[in-house]
Structures are given as structure tokens and as C-alpha cells.
Amino acid sequence: MSAYGSAPASGPREAAEWSNRRIVAVNLRAIVGRAYPRVIGLTREPSWLFFEIFLPFLAVSAFVFVYRALGAPEAFVGFVVLGGAMTAFWLNVVWMMAAQFYWEKDQGNLELYFTAPMHLMSVLAGMAIGGLVMTSSRALAVIGIGSLLYGVSYDVHEPLALAAVFLLTMIPLYGMGMLFASLFLLWGREAFHLAQLLQEPIYFLGGVNFPLRALGPAVGLVMATLPLGVGLDAMRQLAFASSDTNGVLPVGTEIVILVAMGIVFLVAARLALGYLETLARREGRLTLRWQ
User: Fold this and answer.
1) Where are the domains of the chain?
2) What is the pTM of this model?
3) What three-state secondary structure class fits 155?
4) How many Å apart are CA 274 and CA 174, to the nearest integer?
């Protein structure tokens, strides 16, 4: 049996039946199976709620006090609260997506993924869906507590557009996590250090704690490569429509960029997984030769 869910069949009809129905069913079960532990984990470890909500909230509070001490526009407080909520998704992508295959390899589970009759994209899609559900609760808690404690007022004229931008931001963001999951495994033991290395630079380049326009010329790089920065800029424009602080680009243009990023990162993740499968099945290795 191959990793794509194919199996020997006694005739064309049985083969077509397997291809059209069983492959879909197997991959859907894989998605649900990988999403389940992340969703159910919301209630299994209450201590995680404290660390994943309270600690990020401390960083948000620090920037709130800085902006108020400097007499910055009150909208900046809302920018920080929204940015602090979005950091939860980036942390989920880095630690629970990008480094996941490397950790599974250390625990001895990775071989099961390669021998099971499913596609690796299904495994990663399940991780992404489960992580999105789990992280959304943390992000909503940060927004709720920050808004109440610091008196943030939102001016949302297009709630459906705001929801659409959020979803369009998640697709390339988790697509990037899928790509990194393969690359981190190829790079071997440096995966943990790479995850740490990417954390703070993305906070800065993504404009998590300040308007993205403040980056100046570097903002073009962000718009071309970082879904978090593009999505956050668009969401701030929609959530604080009456603010005097303009976004880098119009919301419509940023939506087009997010769609393009989603396609690019998902295709790149698929290609990287294909290369990983080639190493695993044909050459019996999971890392580059120079390691």
C-alpha cells in the first residue's frame, strides 16, 4: 500500500472505488485525527491557558503604557492589543507546526506517518485546523481582556470583510508553517534553534506592536514575504476605520497579496513534502546529506 491510499485491486471498478472514495475518507480521517488532540487539549491542561494568555498579555501591556506615556493616539493601544492577539497564531505556527515533524521524529512517530495510507498534507492540515481552533481561544481572550482593561474602542464598518481578511491571513500563515515543517526536518537538529531565531524578527517585521508603515523601505519586503504583517495591516484598517493612521496599502490590494501568498506557500509546502517523501522512501533518509 502506498502513502497516497492506493491498494491492489482485483479490477478497474474496485480500483476506481478506492481512488474516489477511500482515499478521500482516509485523508479526512487523518485530518480529524490530527486536529482532535489540539482541540481537546483546550480543556486537558488548564495551566497552559495561564501561560499562553497571561504572558503575552504582559508584553501587550508594556507597549500600551509606553504609547500612553508618549501621548500617542489612542488607536495605537488598539493596534497593540490586536497585534498581541495575532502573536498567538505565529507562536502556534512556529512551535506546533514548523517544528512538529522534527519532534515526531525524535519521539519515533514519524515513520508511522510515512507508512500510513494518507498524504502528509492531511497530517499538516489537521495540525493547522486544530491549532487554529486552539489558538483562536487564546487570541480572543487577549483581545477581550485588553479591550476591557485598557478601554479599546473599535470602529468596524465592514465586519464580514474583517472576518474574511482574518481567514485569508490564516491560510498563508499556516501554509508557511507546513513549508517550515518540511524544511526544519530536512535541516535536522537545528530546527529548535531556527524556531527561536524566527520568533522575535517576525514580531518586528510584522509590525505586531506598531503601525507597519513605520518600517519605511523595509515594508516592501514584509508585503512580499510575511502573511502576518500584511494581514495585520489590513485588519487594523478594518477594525479602526476612523483612525488617522493609514495602512501601507488599500485593504483590497492586501487581500490580493494574501490570496497570492496562500497559493505560493501551499504549493511550496507540497513540493517540499514531495522532496521529503523521496528522501524517506527511495534513499532511506530524512535530512540533507551534509548533516
Assistant:
1) 12-282
2) 0.82
3) strand
4) 18
